[in-house]
Structures are given as C-alpha cells and as structure tokens.
Amino acid sequence: MKSLQLKDFIIVGSVGKTHGTSGELKLEANQKLKQKEWVMIEFNQKPVPFFMEQCRELVTNEYLVKLRDYNTLEDAQTFIGRNIFYYSTKAVKSKKQIDESIIGYALIDLTLGNIGILEDIIEMPGQIMFQTTNQLNEVLIPAVDDFIDEIDHEKQTIYLKLPEGLI
C-alpha cells in the first residue's frame, strides 16, 4: 500500500484566515481553484482530504470555503496557515491494490474508538480511501500505512491511528 507523500502533490495555496463564526475559511490560491467536493489540507506533513460543503470565489484567487463538520470559529482556527494541495499529474500512480475481502471489517481508531464498518474501498487520484458512515455522514479515510496500526483478520477489525481533526 502506498503512503501519501507531499511530493505527489502540488501546493496551490493556503488557508488565510477564518470568516465569521460558523467555521468558514478564506483560502488564498496561486491559481484558479475548481469547485470540488474534497480539498486536501496538510496535517502532520501529509495531505488529508476534507469534504467541502461549499466553495465560492470572493475575488480573484480568494475563496470562501465551508468544510463539513467544522461549524465553529474554534474548529476553523485549526486550519489557519495550512497548505492546500492538488494531486500532481506527474506523480506515478500506485499499482498496488488493497484486498477487498476486508470490506465489512470494523474500523477502530486507537483514540476515538469505533468509527464504523468499512463499506467500500475507493481509488482516488494518488490514493486509496476507506469509506464508512459515521453518524449518518460519509467518512473517507486515507488507506495509508501511517494511519493503519493493525489489520486483525480473525476479529475482522482494522485498527487505525488517525491524525487529530481527520474525523
């Protein structure tokens, strides 16, 4: 399984500051950003995907973005100054696949506890994601070695060490 590496991505901007009190962020970009459902933001020197509820351009190369489940000023402040990325088309795609027999396994974070059941494995540009539903929200978790602590086939459980703020 290939781990996400910053070298596989290009920096397209950064989170400038918060906007209002409902968790909105102002992103500054060095190129035109396209409306996408997911934005990659740097945490612990790794690009981490976040679902965008809305994204609108304020002025040239400045965007107002609302991330799902980040609804307060305090939530939004954790993103200030962080880089945002696009996948570099020059990066080599991983040829490795994850054995789909682990679909249905329980996903357990060593800090948060039960996250949900692995519903699907999704291949996105440059990475493979675990898909689950947590409290009626879709959750995508990068299937990278750094986040997977152990896969217990006997207990049908995947133990994860997720970075703070991913879920």
Q: What would you note in describing this structure?
A:
This protein has 167 residues and is mostly beta strands. It has two domains: 6-87, RimM (Elongation Factor Tu (Ef-tu), domain 3), CATH 2.40.30.60; 100-160, PRC-barrel domain (SH3 type barrels), CATH 2.30.30. The protein has one helix and 13 strands. The chain has one helix at residues 73-77; strands at residues 9-19, 24-29, 38-43, 46-59, 62-67, 83-87, 106-109, 113-117, 120-124, 127-134, 137-142, 148-152, 157-160. The strands form three sheets. It has a six-stranded antiparallel beta barrel. Strands 8-7-13-12 form a four-stranded mixed beta sheet, with no helix packed on it. The longest helix has 5 residues, at 73-77. The chain is globular and about 55 Å long. Residues 89-96 have low confidence and may be disordered.
Break the fold down into its secondary structure elements and pairings.
Blueprint: E1 9-19, E2 24-29, E3 38-43, E4 46-59, E5 62-67, H1 73-77, E6 83-87, E7 106-109, E8 113-117, E9 120-124, E10 127-134, E11 137-142, E12 148-152, E13 157-160
Parallel strand pairs: 7-13
Antiparallel strand pairs: 1-2, 1-6, 2-5, 3-4, 3-6, 4-5, 7-8, 9-10, 10-11, 12-13
Query: What name does CATH use for the topology of the largest domain?
Result: Elongation Factor Tu (Ef-tu), domain 3
* CATH domain class name of the largest domain: Mainly Beta
Poorly predicted runs of 5 or more residues: 89-96
Series of secondary-structure elements, N-terminal to C-terminal: EEEEEHEEEEEEEE
Proportion in β-strands: over 45%
How many angstroms does the end-to-end distance come to? 22 Å
Q: What is the overall number of helices? A: 1
Question: How does the major sheet shape up?
Answer: 6 strands, antiparallel, barrel
Q: Can you count the beta strands?
A: 13
**Which percent range fits the helix content?**
under 10%
What would the principal axes of the Cα set say about the shape? Answer: globular
Q: Considering the protein shown, what is the CATH homologous superfamily of the largest domain? A: RimM
Average pLDDT number = 82
Estimated structural class: mainly beta
* Widest β-sheet, arrangement of strands: 1-2-5-4-3-6
CATH-level-2 architecture of the largest domain: Beta Barrel
Any idea how many domains? 2
Supply Rg.
16 Å
